[in-house]
Design brief:
Radius of gyration: 33 Å
Largest sheet: none
Helix content: 55-70%
Structural class: mainly alpha
Number of helices: 5
Order of helices and strands: HHHHH
Mean pLDDT: 87
Strand content: under 5%
Shape: rod-shaped
Length: about 180
């Protein structure tokens, strides 16, 4: 008998099939999930920042409109006192609204007089409300005569409101630490 070559019965080398795109490896699924979570976080953060900027713009626009109304009406001597008292009431109401939103646990809605002024000063560690142009807010609308430095009151009110929104933005910003080091 003739010896058969056992190797001749073997089939040729089989090459593996082409590597397909689908289904991806588990690492790609994990990367996709992290990317989606990151995009959702960035989107929510951007929307929150946009809402905060719009709130700030709305409050400042209302403050500026009240100041413009005061300056228009105070041109007439017989309307000056009433216009000043209205401006004072609007300014105090805006400060109170911002304080209620930014410091809900502080109970600012119940604060009046010197307690209210001390609270406003304590937020920025200043004394512009207790000893400066903001002292007129202590009596507020209960005054009979309006005799305030309206430009100074407008300026310190505007700065106080802007600072409340900057503090919130800095605390919530993901990149706040990078901004501080770059400055």
């Amino acid at each position: 008998m003739e010896a058969e070559d056992p190797l001749s019965q073997l089939r040729d080398i089989h090459l593996p099939g082409d590597v397909t795109f689908w289904p991806p490896a588990p690492g790609w699924w994990l990367l996709l999930a992290l990317l989606i979570v990151g995009l959702v976080y960035a989107y929510r953060h951007a929307i929150a920042a946009l809402i905060e900027r719009r709130r700030l713009a709305s409050v400042l626009r209302e403050l500026d409109q009240a100041f413009e109304l005061y300056t228009e009406q105070s041109a007439f001597d017989n309307h000056r006192n009433q216009a000043g008292l209205e401006y004072l009431a609007t300014t105090n109401a805006l400060l109170n609204r911002v304080a209620l939103v930014r410091y809900p646990q502080a109970g600012t809605g119940r604060m009046i007089g010197s307690d209210w002024l001390r609270f406003l000063d304590s937020c920025d560690n200043t004394q512009v409300f207790t000893e400066g142009a903001g002292t007129i807010l202590e009596d507020g609308i209960y005054r009979r005569n309006f005799d305030a430095e309206t430009e100074s009151l407008h300026t310190i009110t505007r700065i106080w409101i802007e600072n409340r929104y900057r503090i919130k933005e800095a605390k919530s910003s993901f990149f706040a630490s990078f901004r501080k080091t770059a400055a």
